Amino acid sequence: MSGLTPEELEAVEAGLGRAPNALELALFEALWSEHCSYKHTKLLLKRLPTRGPGVVAGPGEGAGAVAWRDGRAVVFKLESHNHPSYVAPFDGAATGLGGILRDVFGMGAEIVGAAGAIFADGATAKASGLLDGVIAGLQAYAAAFGVPVGAVLAVDDPAYAQNPLVNVLAVGVVAVDRLARSAAGEDDLVFVYAGRPTDLDGVRGAAFASAAFGAAAPAVRVPKADPEAGKRLYRATLALIAAGWVRAVQDMGAAGLLSASAEMAAKGGRGATLWLDRVPEAFLPAGEKAITPEAAEAMMLSETQERMLFAVRRGDVPAVLAALASHGVPAAAVGEVRSDGRYVLVAGGRVLADVPVALLVDGVPLHDLRARVPGAVLRPPANGPGSAGAADGPPAPGAGLAGSEAAALAASFGSAVERAARSAVRRWFGPGRGPVGAVRLPAEAADRPAGGLLYTVVADPALVARDARRGTAALVVRGALRLALRGARPLGVTNNLNFGDPADPRVARDLVEAIEGLAAGAEALALPVVSGNVSLYNATAGRSIPPSPVVGLVGDAPEAALAGPPPLAPGDVLVWIVPPADAAGPPRDGAADGLPAPAALRPWIEALGAARLRRLFTAGVPVEGAGPVEAAAELLLLLLDEEERSGRAAPAGARGRSEEAALPERALVFAAEDGGPFVGGSPAGGLADPLAPENVSAAVVVAAGEAVPALRATIEAAGGRAAVLARVVAADDPAAEAGIRLSALRAKAASAVDAFVFDETAAEDPATAAERVRPDGTGPDRREEAAR
């Protein structure tokens, strides 16, 4: 039975002028799968802003690249490994990280950081070992490879019990003049296979990732990761590119050798011949030399990990093979570029397949989901800021709080801290335990300013479910806010669109709307979307996951943006700042499209970044969905966690910490001059409109109360508003009686966290994590359950 639809099979036969043989049919099934072809989203993705003055490489390469500084570019991309991570959590997550790292270093970039997002049902995932497996897989690969993981976001929701999601962001830096491309556009080029020999791992993995569980999901052997081999391949790849030998390069990821060779040839307007009897393999019986069509299919479709395909000039082949050998990377010349646009597989002097490469790579019939979304299922307009549960904006100064009110608010804020600690979109794993990863990079010359990069991933399925268009636009705004609140300038956007079965009109509607929102959010901030991934068919037994787009951003960080916040001290002030009322654009009301307004939104975010660099505040987080009270609680948690990790949070005299190092007890007292969101609003907050001004506001800590007037003036000059929420006082200050002690906040947060637990030992000793999760060397395996 063919994996193609009748329409697709007809298109293949029309393009060939004949029926394909069995091997050719397998090639088309792989590259015309949803996972490889994007046949349901390719037309929609044309809406994204992918060009601009800072774009060095856009969609179509292994990853995107934007100009950074000193002739260097940032290379970055989000990728998913959802289906494999459910079937085999450890290996699925580890190979997901390894694959996105190869996409980035395959462009010549030095890897500088990674981040990610995990969506799961915390209770069942913890009990089944899935969560431990995924986290351990990510940590083990990262530690062995040597890549720092900045932050991993965890979304805990029962909706992901049958379809957990694992998305990974990788970030690298490369000199622009050394950026490698994937188009093999020259004659007389030879394909060099580099890396582990082909085995039967992941054969037909692209088809597996293009089907819902519970349907006719094909059985697949999830590939195993080898981070040490990956690290050797990484160093070898950078060395070949630096030597100038690489004319084109691509990772052998989904659909393996087939996708790498065919796509490289198609992008270059050429064809390819592959010599299958020269392909390194580890699955044929000893002494077997004949390559059957079945063996050829396995060679072409295997997704054995830690492999690259290089296109090099024929005269450079001996030097390239020698260089790879010197790095401990097995390699062989396995084919050549041809000028006639044909894709030919040869073994033992016989032609096993011969098809037009353009038909194979780009010939799949595309689906326009916009035409399939009936108006009856379009989401009704989101309610505006006055909806039930919405928090009021900051009142004019002088609204005042009575002492009894301040005490009551202190108690309710303690509850908000517990909610923030449990909140689905506020649990972070990894160094910093916060939403932003940071890397300090040396300047290219002594007279150049020092600095680095910040990067973040953003997701909030509940927000997107309310309004997929405005919700996805809000994710871009949140990411930019996170970077600006650290003092960084956003440079570009990547994304991973996790959705269910596109045959469901509601899924199709949300996908169409989300892409429109992604485009609008990026356009409002003048940011290019330079890379991304689409993962569809995240569904089981006819039930799809909620719309779950993930957005990643990178930003240029001056040295001042890389410094961590100082400990909270008496005199510090917590402030809520809200953008201009017109920054988010009009709510959707049938007449307006409800998209963000760049004229107000972009200057607002730039003003926040400038204020941070002027040290008008020392830390901040965006209000993300639950409202300003939860945002303030999250900010306090992040700062307290920073104190904990720095060793300064323990009581004086605690074991291993000196009395001088420990911070004194402090309290948080709610301000008398401004009521902020606590007046007339629910302490939990929560706004129905994802882009309401209060929902793209921020909570910040001002390092000293005397900076408040300057911060307020800066915010008001940008059209925004500011309100003091609370002050930090010494524990022996009489005002502390009406507040809440910071040690009590820390204790409340610790008692609230139970579902997602980060095992830091795995980062120090990856073998420990692997042994714990995979006692038999194979790890938890759900392929039988996945095929139910």
Relevant terms:
disordered C terminus, seven-stranded mixed β-sheet, alpha+beta, about 35% helix, about 800 residues
How would you characterize the overall build of this protein?
The protein is α+β, with helices and mostly antiparallel strands and 788 residues long. Strand 19 (539-540) and strand 20 (543-544) form a beta hairpin. It starts with 5 loop residues before the first helix and ends with a helix. Mean pLDDT is 81; it is low at 376-402, 650-660, 675-686 and 754-788. Helices cover 34% and strands 22% of the residues. It has 26 helices and 27 strands. The strands form five sheets. The chain has a seven-stranded mixed β-sheet. Strands 8-10-7-11-9-12-13 form a seven-stranded mixed β-sheet, with helices on both faces. A six-stranded antiparallel β-sheet has the order 23-25-22-26-24-27.
**What structural class should be given to the helix and strand makeup?**
alpha+beta
Poorly predicted regions: 376-402, 650-660, 675-686, 754-788
Approximate strand percentage: 15-25%
Instruction: Give a quick account of the main beta sheet: strands, pairing sense, barrel closure.
Output: 7 strands, mixed
Number of helical stretches of at least 4 residues: 26
Mean pLDDT: 81
Total strands: the figure is 27
Enumerate the strands of the largest sheet in spatial order, edge to edge or round the barrel. 1-2-3-6-4-5-14
Cα-to-Cα separation, first versus last residue: 19 Å
- Give the proportion of residues in helices: 25-40%
Shape, per Cα inertia axes: elongated
